[in-house]
């Protein structure tokens, strides 16, 4: 496919239009690193979906499963998951149907969490005690982007305080990394009282969540985009970018692979099936930078 990016030959890689994809990669390379920005989801995109057959936690799961949540709280959060997650990934429901239900899920989950008297000073320990893992190759990804001054925008429907701590503990929270997510609000005693708005869920990662906009305005000359996601809702993450010349969308298909392959291949330029690494992304960046 492309001798310059041998990683694209991996068995996990699927590409519907190889010529088109090579053209985009070529254009991004020609435009140069000063024109590039990376926009990425966090949970199950930069972090691993699973390890040795066990699921890895999302930033919400890290909290939900931690010792700071009561047994009753855990049960209620689990009930919400079992009810709403099938709706979130149901290929037969429209976005119009899903959106209000996602708002309902996130709102109820955040209300439950806010009743748990979570302390700000517990967050680092909660993350340390969790099974969260970043994908193999995360060091190279963060290091290269930092070295070449390429902005990395992490747009997450997870919990900002938790995911920032994950990146911090991995020693890759560099100055070129910006996060937009759901952040906690603590009172003067450092106890969680509520989550700050606007609420970000799986299907509103777009212009409607306005606090990404000044960020993109400042980077208006960065017209080449590499977008990394793992759900259909991640495809709109670059909608706030004022002018896009080249965009390469890379999708991690982690779950229900056979069932969702067609949809992902239509939507993403490159699909990575059950691939727990960032090899392909790093290979493309190595070629571009």
TrEMBL record:
<dbReference type="Pfam" id="PF05822">
    <property type="entry name" value="UMPH-1"/>
</dbReference>
<comment type="subunit">
    <text>Monomer.</text>
</comment>
<protein>
    <recommendedName>
        <fullName>5'-nucleotidase</fullName>
        <ecNumber>3.1.3.5</ecNumber>
    </recommendedName>
</protein>
<comment type="function">
    <text>Specifically hydrolyzes 7-methylguanosine monophosphate (m(7)GMP) to 7-methylguanosine and inorganic phosphate. The specific activity for m(7)GMP may protect cells against undesired salvage of m(7)GMP and its incorporation into nucleic acids. Also has weak activity for CMP. UMP and purine nucleotides are poor substrates.</text>
</comment>
<keyword id="KW-0479">Metal-binding</keyword>
<keyword id="KW-0963">Cytoplasm</keyword>
<keyword id="KW-0460">Magnesium</keyword>
<keyword id="KW-0546">Nucleotide metabolism</keyword>
<dbReference type="InterPro" id="IPR036412">
    <property type="entry name" value="HAD-like_sf"/>
</dbReference>
<comment type="similarity">
    <text>Belongs to the pyrimidine 5'-nucleotidase family.</text>
</comment>
<dbReference type="GO" id="GO:0008253">
    <property type="term" value="F:5'-nucleotidase activity"/>
</dbReference>
<dbReference type="GO" id="GO:0005737">
    <property type="term" value="C:cytoplasm"/>
</dbReference>
<dbReference type="GO" id="GO:0009117">
    <property type="term" value="P:nucleotide metabolic process"/>
</dbReference>
<dbReference type="GO" id="GO:0000287">
    <property type="term" value="F:magnesium ion binding"/>
</dbReference>
<keyword id="KW-0378">Hydrolase</keyword>
<dbReference type="InterPro" id="IPR006434">
    <property type="entry name" value="Pyrimidine_nucleotidase_eu"/>
</dbReference>
<keyword id="KW-0547">Nucleotide-binding</keyword>
<dbReference type="InterPro" id="IPR023214">
    <property type="entry name" value="HAD_sf"/>
</dbReference>
<dbReference type="GO" id="GO:0000166">
    <property type="term" value="F:nucleotide binding"/>
</dbReference>
């Amino acid at each position: 496919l492309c001798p310059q990016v041998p990683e694209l030959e991996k068995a996990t890689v699927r590409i519907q239009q190889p010529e088109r994809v090579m053209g985009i990669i070529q254009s991004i390379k020609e435009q140069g690193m000063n024109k590039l920005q990376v926009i990425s989801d966090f949970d199950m995109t930069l972090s691993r979906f699973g390890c040795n057959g066990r699921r890895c936690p999302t930033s919400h799961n890290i909290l939900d499963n931690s010792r700071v949540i009561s047994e009753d709280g855990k049960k209620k959060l689990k009930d919400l998951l079992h009810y709403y997650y099938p709706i979130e990934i149901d290929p037969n429901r429209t976005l119009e149907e899903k959106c209000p239900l996602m708002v309902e899920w996130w709102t109820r989950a955040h209300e439950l969490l806010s009743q748990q008297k979570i302390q700000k000073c517990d967050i680092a320990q909660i993350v340390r005690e969790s099974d969260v893992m970043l994908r193999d190759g995360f060091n190279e990804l963060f290091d290269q982007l930092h070295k070449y001054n390429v902005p990395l925008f992490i747009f997450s429907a997870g919990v900002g305080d938790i995911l920032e701590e994950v990146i911090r503990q991995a020693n890759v929270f560099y100055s070129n990394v910006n996060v937009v997510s759901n952040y906690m609000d603590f009172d003067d005693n450092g106890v969680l009282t509520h989550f700050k708005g606007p609420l970000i869920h799986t299907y509103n990662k777009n212009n409607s969540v306005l606090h990404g906009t000044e960020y993109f305005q400042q980077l208006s000359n960065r017209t080449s985009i590499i977008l990394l996601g793992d759900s259909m809702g991640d495809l709109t993450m670059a909608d706030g970018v004022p002018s896009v010349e080249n965009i390469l969308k890379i999708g991690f298909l982690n779950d229900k692979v056979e069932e969702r392959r067609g949809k992902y291949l239509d939507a993403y330029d490159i699909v990575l099936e059950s691939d727990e690494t960032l090899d392909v992304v790093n290979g493309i960046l190595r070629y571009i930078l």
